[in-house]
């Protein structure tokens, strides 16, 4: 398998590239970044693994970087080095970068699976899909916004609450007991505790704090780094976890992890999600890496509190999707 990382020299790109270099399913790793593509590739090439690594920094090298890629990961752009950076600031700066990269993907690797890590995911994924659509390519089923970090945080934070109360018997069941749906920012993130027995161990206040911590997990890291970065290491880990699941599907095995979700274009209306074209849901992915369905059944199991959270998430996602679609339909492209 060939994986290309666009933005490989950044805070997410470097640790993600390291994890991919160590992944035995990756045969070839192409690393592009206008600042550091050569250096990261040189560094990783000294690690004794059979994976071939090549770095790129120049625009004219992008054809070689992207051609024959099975998976292309976009993690280029700016991150949140401060909680004062607004979502709109991220959007205005990163959509310009994403636009250039996606045009190259369409030109040189239109059949690849595209994973979007750059933020804001809720708006950038619709931009990527609409750009392909403008070229006559419906690629919604092979473009994934990576929301895995929200799932990982939910697993970790729930375990911390239970362990803090002296409850350890559910540790091995937590991963199977949580799904995260919605989007990938603030109130658009909705963690769902499927195991009602586990959920009953949390008081109403504990549950509310759990949800808020998951929704604001990024701020927690930004504040802890005190202006010197954002959630780069955990995001790289989360991105690699999703790639592992995807590679497993491509090879015909079940894959690691449980309840993996991603932010995708919905091929058809989902009961309970009215008038929303994109949403993060647990996925069914076939051996070609295509999303062939989402697990909408969990929406029927929600209690009143969870339904209210989903309603808020739908409202936020609609606004974010419209922002991305308006960018493409306007004079920007």
Automatic annotation (TrEMBL):
Residues 147-326 form the Lactate/malate dehydrogenase C-terminal domain. It is an enzyme of class 1 (oxidoreductase). The active site is at residue 184. PROSITE patterns: MDH. SUPFAM superfamilies: LDH C-terminal domain-like, NAD(P)-binding Rossmann-fold domains. InterPro entries: L-lactate/malate_DH, Lactate/malate_DH_C, Lactate/malate_DH_N, Lactate_DH/Glyco_Ohase_4_C, Malate_DH_AS, Malate_DH_type1, NAD(P)-bd_dom_sf. Its EC number is 1.1.1.37. It comes from the Eukaryota. NAD(+) binds at residues 7-13, 33, 94, 117-119, 235. Pfam families: Ldh_1_C, Ldh_1_N. Keywords: NAD, Oxidoreductase, Tricarboxylic acid cycle. One of its GO terms (cellular component) is intracellular organelle lumen. The keyword Oxidoreductase applies. One of its GO terms (biological process) is malate metabolic process. Residues 1-145 form the Lactate/malate dehydrogenase N-terminal domain. This is Malate dehydrogenase.
């Amino acid at each position: 398998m060939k994986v290309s990382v666009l933005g490989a020299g950044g805070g997410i790109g470097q640790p993600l590239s390291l994890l991919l270099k160590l992944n035995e399913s990756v045969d070839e790793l192409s690393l592009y970044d206008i600042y550091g593509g050569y250096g990261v590739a040189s560094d990783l090439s000294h690690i004794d693994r059979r994976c071939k690594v090549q770095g790129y920094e120049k625009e004219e090298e992008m054809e070689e970087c992207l051609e024959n890629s099975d998976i292309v990961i976009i993690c280029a752009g700016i991150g949140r080095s401060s909680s004062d950076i607004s979502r709109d600031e991220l959007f205005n700066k990163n959509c310009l970068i994403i636009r250039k990269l996606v045009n190259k993907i369409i030109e040189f690797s239109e059949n690849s699976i595209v994973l979007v890590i750059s933020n804001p995911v809720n708006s950038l994924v619709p931009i990527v899909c609409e750009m392909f659509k403008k070229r006559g390519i419906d690629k919604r089923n092979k473009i994934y916004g990576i929301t895995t970090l929200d799932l990982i945080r939910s697993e970790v934070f729930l375990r911390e609450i239970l362990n803090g109360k002296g409850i350890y018997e559910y540790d091995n069941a937590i991963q199977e007991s949580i799904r995260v749906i919605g989007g990938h920012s603030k109130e658009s993130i909705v963690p769902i505790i499927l195991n009602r027995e586990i959920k009953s161990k949390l008081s109403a206040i504990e549950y509310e704090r759990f949800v808020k911590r998951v929704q604001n997990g990024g701020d927690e890291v930004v504040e802890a780094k005190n202006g010197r970065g954002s959630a780069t290491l955990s995001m790289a880990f989360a991105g690699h976890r999703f790639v592992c699941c995807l590679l497993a599907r491509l090879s015909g095995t079940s894959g690691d992890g449980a309840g993996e979700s991603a932010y995708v274009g919905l091929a058809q209306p989902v009961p309970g999600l009215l008038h929303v074209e994109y949403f993060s849901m647990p996925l069914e992915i076939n051996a070609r890496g295509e999303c062939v369905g989402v697990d909408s059944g969990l929406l029927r199991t929600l209690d009143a509190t969870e339904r209210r959270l989903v309603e808020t998430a739908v409202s936020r996602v609609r606004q974010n999707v419209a922002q991305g679609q308006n960018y493409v339909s306007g004079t920007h492209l």
